[in-house]
Amino acid sequence: MRRFVRRQASPIGCRRGPLHDAAEVARAGVPTVMMFTQSLAGLSHNKAEDTKSDDLKMAVQAFDRLARKTVNWLSTQKSKG
Predict the structure, then answer these.
(1) Could you list the residue range(s) of the whole structural domain that residue 36 is in?
(2) Terminal-to-terminal C-alpha distance of the chain
(3) Of the candidates 26, 36, 23, the residue with the CA atom closest to the CA atom of residue 63
(4) Which pLDDT does position 25 carry in this prediction?
(5) How much is the pLDDT for 10?
(6) How far is CA 67 from CA 15, 26, 40, 73, in A?
(7) What is the pLDDT of residue 13?
(8) What is the rounded CA–CA span in Å between residue 51 and residue 59?
């Protein structure tokens, strides 16, 4: 599953950094993905945080694509076993 998700990721990549709750979920053995969208001025977890509408739209499309591919992948795994 991890290799599958890495192949779906953007070629731009993501720098490692924040762990959030996803680290705890992954540590428990649950396949986990974090998706980030660029914030204006690099602000995060702040009242002034904002994101361009086009960037939000692209993030939703990426999440939809990942979700659909994951469902398809899971259905092929189920049929194998």
Answers:
(1) 2-80
(2) 15
(3) 36
(4) 83
(5) 45
(6) 22, 18, 26, 10
(7) 46
(8) 11
Query: Quick count: other Cβ atoms within 10 Å of Cβ 63?
Result: 13
Residues 45-55 as b/e (b if ≥16 CB within 10 A, e otherwise) read eeeeeeeeeee
Q: Token pair 């939809």 is at which residue? A: 64
Total domains in the chain come to 1
69 Cβ partners below 8 Å, 6+ apart?
4, 8
Residue type, 3: R
Is pTM beyond 0.85 here?
Answer: no
For residue 60 the two structure tokens come to: 């939703």
pLDDT in tens, 4-63: 655 555 444 444 555 667 888 888 888 888 888 889 998 888 899 999 999 999 999 999
> Residue 25: enclosing H or E segment and its boundaries?
helix 20-27
Per the CB < 8 A criterion, the answer to whether 34 and 20 are in contact is yes
